[in-house]
Amino acid sequence: MEQSEHLKEKRPGHRFPRRTVEEMEFQRKMRLNHFIRQAEFFKLSEKPDFVQAKKWLLQALRIEKNHPIANYRLGYLLYREHQYELAVYHFKTALDGTETDVLSETQLILANTFLVNCGMAITREALRELEDLELRIEGEIDQERIERYRAEMLVQEENMLDRLYYRKITAGHETIINEEQFYDIRPDKGELLLRSSDDGKTLQVFGKPAESLNLHMFLTLVLLNQKSFQPYPVLQDALSELGGQRISYNYMRQIIRRIRDQFVTLNLIESTSISSLDSSRPVQGFRIHPNWSVTILCRADDFIHPIQKERSDV
Q: pLDDT tens digit string along 175-191?
């Protein structure tokens, strides 16, 4: 009697098709990227959970120990926790990069800056230990020689260590700012100011107080900051990647509606019918209304960016 394919697979000795090297590498990369996105989800959420973020980054590094982005972000979390020796290791690994992955220019600048700060913190701790040791040592010591080397260890700009670094993104151009600048910036007329910090995520316009946003509303406005109109499926995929968790098509529609309802008087979002690559019928596309300019303020290590490739079919 002829057997079905299902029964053939079940019989003893049957071998399932072996995955190719390319398929295995693709799956490895998918798992790696998933772990990194999950870490970003916990770090960016309304109530940031840095412990969970670290766990996911460590999972990613078990797959690829030299991955620059995972090392950079873990180094940043360790830096915030004052674990400077461990942070140095991960920043250096991130700076080395791999054959296929490297840090962005902004991340390169920040990683080197954090390395300097880590070195300064380690130097300060060494000086404190030296002072304690001098008090405990009995007998003669070469004080003149110690003072000479102590002077070489001193760092001129001590306040540098205490700065927290942030990014300012305007019209695709990024600049690095300090904490004082981050909180002092106010929107000009015709400007939407999107600010993300441990205190939460807000939108502010000229002459009005900042209004709170949830994570997905904030990221959606970041994604809508494009010249071209973006349809629901593109926004859905991009938001799933940025937010670290898969969202549904219907939920994406709800987010757009919530933003419009909350800021109905501002006319933030412009929509129109656009052509679709996979359908003969036009679909609805969205973007921030061109009457508004957008400035995004976020922590240095927040993985916040617009849609990388704008649609070419509109």
A: 888 888 999 999 999 99
Residue by residue, DSSP assigns 222-279 as HHT-SSS-EEHHHHHHHHHHHHSS---HHHHHHHHHHHHHHTTTTT-EEEEEEEETTE
Beta bridge partners of residue 192, listed in sequence order: 294
Q: Report how far apart, in Å, the C-alpha atoms of 299 and of each of 27, 63, 100, 177 are.
A: 31, 27, 26, 9
A 10 A CB-CB count for 12 gives 4
Rounded CA separation 156/213 (Å)? 41
Burial of 284 (0-12, 13-18, 19+ CB in 10 A): middle
**Quick count: other Cβ atoms within 10 Å of Cβ 64?**
18
CB 190 within 8 A of CB 293: yes
**Structure pTM?**
0.68
* Residues found in the chain: 314
Distance CA 62, CA 139 (A): 50
Rounded to 5°, angle at Cα 246 from 192 and 102: 75
Q: Using DSSP bridges, classify how beta strands 279-288 and 269-276 pair: parallel, antiparallel or unpaired.
A: antiparallel
Q: Where are the alpha helices (DSSP H) in the chain?
A: 5-10, 21-44, 50-63, 68-80, 84-96, 105-136, 143-153, 179-184, 215-223, 232-243, 249-262
183, 182, 185, 204: which is closest to 193 by C-alpha?
204
What would the pLDDT profile of 120-157 be if each residue is shown by its tens digit?
888 777 777 766 666 666 555 566 665 665 555 554 44
User: Exposure of 196 by Cβ count < 10 A (0-12 exposed, 13-18 middle, 19+ buried)?
Assistant: buried
